[in-house]
Amino acid sequence: MHLGAGGQIVFGERRPDDPALPEDLEAALREWAAVAEAVEVNGGPSERSLVRRRGRQLAGRLADLIGRPVQFHDPVTGQVERVWGPATGPLSRPAPERAAPTPWATGLAISVFFAVLTTLADIVLCHAFADAFGVLWAPANLLVALGLAPSLWLFRRAPFWRWPALGVAGGLVVAWVCLGLAPP
Questions:
Q1: Fewer CB near the terminus (10 Å): N or C of the chain?
Q2: pTM over 0.70
Q3: Can you give the C-alpha Rg of the chain in angstroms?
C-alpha cells in the first residue's frame, strides 16, 4: 500500500480472492491520502508523524482484513515496512521536538524598543486627551490597556511576538507610573 500520483492509494499486493474493502476503510484511506498529500507539501514534523502513524494504522486494518502482511510505503520518509495486523491500543506518541534556544539578546532589544515606543505613545495620547477632555484621560487610558490585554496575553507564547507583547505590556506599566507621578 502506498500513495500514488494525485493522492491515490495503490494496493500493489491485491489478489483476486481478497475480500472487498469495507466502505469505512475505503473512506478512511481516501481521507488519509488527501491529508498525506497536503502534509507532504506543507506539513511540519508533528503533522508528518501523525500521517505516518495513521497510515500504519490503516495498513494494519487492511492486513487484518486480507489475512496477510501488507507493505506500507511511508509517504513522508519513503521507508517501506511490513505491517502484520491491526495496530491495537493507543497510537504511540512521537518524541517531543527539541525547542530552539531562546534569543534573549535580540528578544530583549525588541522588547525595550516596543516598551519605549508604547510609553511615549501612551503619555502623548493621555496629554492630548487631557487637553481636550480633562480628567477623562484616566478612564480612556484604562480602556486602551484593557483593550490590549487579550492580544498581549495570546501573544505571550508565540516565538517572535512574545517580545513585542512583553515590551508593550512593560511600556504601559511604565506609562501608568509616569502618569501617576506627573498627571497631565
A1: C
A2: no
A3: 29
Q: Domain ends where: 83, 117, 135?
A: 83
Is 88 inside any structural domain? no
The answer to whether residues 116 and 59 belong to one domain is no
Query: What pLDDT, in 10s, does the model give residues 66-83?
Result: 778 888 888 777 788 888
Contact by Cβ (8 Å): 4, 33: no
- In the listed set 83, 115, 130, which residue is the last one of a domain according to the structure? 83
Residue 99 belongs to a domain: no
How many structural domains is the chain composed of? Answer: 2
Helix (H, G, I), strand (E, B) or coil at 94: coil
Tens of pLDDT, residues 134-176: 999 999 999 999 999 999 999 988 888 999 999 999 999 999 9
Band (99; pLDDT cuts 50, 70, 90): confident
Decide: helix, strand or coil at residue 9. Answer: strand
H-type helices in 96-183, by residue range? 104-133, 137-155, 162-181
Nearest to 74 by CA among 44, 60, 53, 90: 53
Domain interval for residue 124:
104-181
Domain assignment present for 89: no
pLDDT digits (tens, 9 = 90+) for 12-26: 566 667 777 788 888
